[in-house]
Design goal:
single chain, 2 domains, globular, Rossmann fold, about 260 residues, alpha/beta, Arc Repressor Mutant, subunit A, five-stranded parallel beta sheet
């Protein structure tokens, strides 16, 4: 592994939080140091269970770097569990020569991959590239406070509506995460379907899940529409009172 050039530390400090999941202590430390010099805040975990515990305590990061060859829990299983919480961008590290493993990671979980051994400059550059093409993301906190009546705990797949805890399905969590990270902007239906279901989604399924989300977020004492429809385009999240272009009211079918 090559050491980074001095230029990495020249970028201004930013507010992006990175979680590194890597079992090798030396690699983990080097990655943490170079990313902190690049202006990121960083947490680390040595295996999958520790990483999941950290997510419960800290909330979802802006990006994760996950080694596939982890002890106890394979890196793909870590990615799978994280994706059940929200659409967190992931870069996988792999020492495996198998193209099949790399393609599986890219198709199902990751925005990018890095083969070992790697140059530390490469990791920083790839993280910056992934983050540059994504929305700002959410605050790295255990519970996202939306307003006085609604909060979201993504790591535990639940809403908190007027102090009442309401469970979300993994699909609902992922959809809500996508809407919140684009808050105030329309997310195209095609984008939502591609991110959540890859090639298996359709607009009818999407409408049903949006209807479920709306009902779970409904507060009888303080009614407010959070998820809005841009007819023929997609959906957006807003805490402002907006005349909707047509909220779906389909009855739920069994998931």
């Amino acid at each position: 592994m090559k050491t980074p050039s001095k230029a990495i530390g020249s970028k201004p400090v930013n507010d992006k939080h990175i979680l590194i999941v890597e079992d090798d202590a030396v690699t983990r430390t080097l990655l943490r140091e170079v990313l902190e010099r690049a202006g990121f805040s960083v947490s680390t975990a040595g295996d999958g269970p520790d990483a999941l515990t950290l997510l419960q305590r800290q909330g979802l990061p802006h990006l994760m770097v996950v080694d596939l060859g982890l002890p106890t829990m394979h890196g793909f299983e870590v990615c799978r569990r994280v994706k059940r919480m929200g659409d967190v961008p992931i870069i996988i590290l792999t020492g495996e020569a198998s193209l099949e493993s790399v393609l599986e990671g890219i198709d199902n979980y990751a925005e990018d991959y890095i083969r070992k051994p790697f140059h530390l400059d490469e990791v920083v550059a790839r993280i910056r590239r992934v983050l540059s093409r994504l929305p700002e993301g959410l605050n790295n906190v255990p519970v996202q406070i939306i307003d006085d009546y609604l909060s979201v705990d993504f790591a535990n797949n639940r809403l908190i509506v007027e102090d009442q805890s309401i469970l979300l399905t993994p699909t609902e969590s992922k959809l809500l995460y996508l809407l919140l990270t684009h808050q105030g902007k329309v997310v195209r239906a095609t984008t939502l379907m591609a991110r959540v279901w890859q090639d298996d989604g359709n607009e009818d399924t999407l409408r049903v899940h949006m209807s479920r989300l709306r009902r779970k977020m409904h507060n009888r004492k303080h009614p407010r529409s959070y998820i809005h429809t841009e007819r023929g385009v997609g959906y957006f999240f807003s805490i402002e009172d907006i005349k909707d272009d047509g909220n779906e009211t389909e009855e739920d079918s069994d998931e």
